[in-house]
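@channel anyone free to eyeball this complex?
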Amino acid sequence: MIVHIPDEPPHDLHHQPTVSVFASSINPKHANQIVRRLNQIAPLEGLRHVKRIRKKVLEGGQIELSVVLCLAYEADNQLDVVPPHLQEFISSYQLGPFITKVCKYEATSKEEWQEQCKFWPTSYHPRTYNIDGITGFSEEDSQSVLKFMQSAVELATSGGLVNVVNAAVIVDPSAKQIISTARDQVFAWNNCKDDSCYKKPDLLSSHPVANSLDPQKPLHLRSSCNHLKQSYTGVACLYPCQWAEQQSNSQISYYCHPLRHAAIVAIESSAARDRRLFPNDEGSKEKYLEFDHESPCMSSPSKRQKTVEDDGKLNAQSQTSNQVEDNDKLNPCRQTESNLLSARPYLCTGYDIYLVWEPCTMCAMALVHQRIRRIFYAFPNPKTGALGSVYRLQGEKSLNHHYAVFRVLLPEEALHNRSAETKETGI
Amino acid sequence: MTSPDTHIFMELAIQQAKLAMDALEVPVGCVIVEDGKVIASGRNRTTETRNATRHAEMEAIDVLLEQWQKNGLSMTEVAKKFSNCSLYVTCEPCIMCASALSNLGIKEVFYGCSNDKFGGCGSILSLNLGDAVSLNKGFKCAGGIMATEAVLLLRTFYEQGNPNAPKPHRPLAQQATT
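replying in thread with the prediction:
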């Protein structure tokens, strides 16, 4: 089962948070004037989703209009009377203020919105971008998701049960192709002694998924657990500070890197793959300018993410990028290789990542930077998880990229050794 | 927390940012200081590496980790080293870098301009405060150091991001005072 982890923690549909406001019924003739004036003298800061005017059709077809005047509290104190700066306004239009409730947060679903409008009408803007899967997965897509998650689990457990780490698999879903894979490498570089190893953990570059996956071995999805029985102390995202306690006595051959969590390594290796497959980009006509680093708030927004020498070429490109996803609006920087031999996405635009554990803040933000489209994880990370458990980066509006997050519900036994898994599937 | 040295080190971080700018990278730079001495520096390399996580901080951290382990330091010794290090960076560390710095247990961070979109030291998240659940101690943090110079570099870059444009000139950055 695959569950979408929304941008906001879901509210109980029938108990959505509300706030009190002063409202008043108005003469429809004055509606335009009143709204215009109110927007000037009492803008509804923080309640932009609340409609200023409510229209009610009374018995006999008569129309009643009411307007929100202002919040009915100040610094958490309930107000009994309308604030002074509105008094004159109220008397000039002969309004009769009353207190009512409006929903505090913008609706995240149509169902929420319908409930909200029972209090007072609100506006509802479904996500402007559509990422496959938010509205559900087809049978074929679910199978594909499960298979990729299975390969992540196999990778995570390939060192044996006592040595379970987090693992990451970056996938191009349009070609069902694995782009890169990685295990946590916080302590895993013990086999590397020279610099070649340091630079490039040589992972599989790309191969058809069919080679690595056995369709006869689906993952079991009978149950899911939020609280795993074991602690899995080798998982870097769960214990990001643990590296410091590691007592190693053979330091020379034991390269350790506290920040080489699986997602970080997988990103690095997908970047290495990109450089390998498209080596000529360096001096070519196009240069990406990665603007998402650390730009402070500035007048010129970070939309210009790419500069192209030849404007005509940019136009030609936009026509050829037929693989552009709907969320491309958020990623105006996608590119198609000029030679058209192969579509080359900007960073990981359009790619998915499968992680056995929910990523920590560092990894989740790294995946924002690298423009991953969807994240699938199997087990939550209650200590440092940044995709729903502790933070929820997919809902941080200020970020310049937003991925969709899904949890693939797996039983903890999926982590146990593969022979056990085979036994299970044999039933 | 700030001292005259703060500006000297920030000036060096800005030099790194200018190197990034010259290489057509987003101009952010940093230095890491231990016992009053610069022991590592880094600048943004996201374009060159096609890896958007290669921020200045990550570059400088990797220099240290490689060096210290080559010198035979154990992980506990590496941790102790970091707990004695200060980072000077021209822009508030992003959420990823702030999280990384916190995991490494760095002592303190001085930054230039704040980062209203991605900042992990107060702007969006406050990872510098640490948290009890993951036993993360966080780090001391002070912003706004030579922020004008840092913003100016970024603004110049944004305005002249086109490689076709004449070599970026940075009139005010060169007037930077300590």
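from a first look: Chain A has a mean pLDDT of 75.
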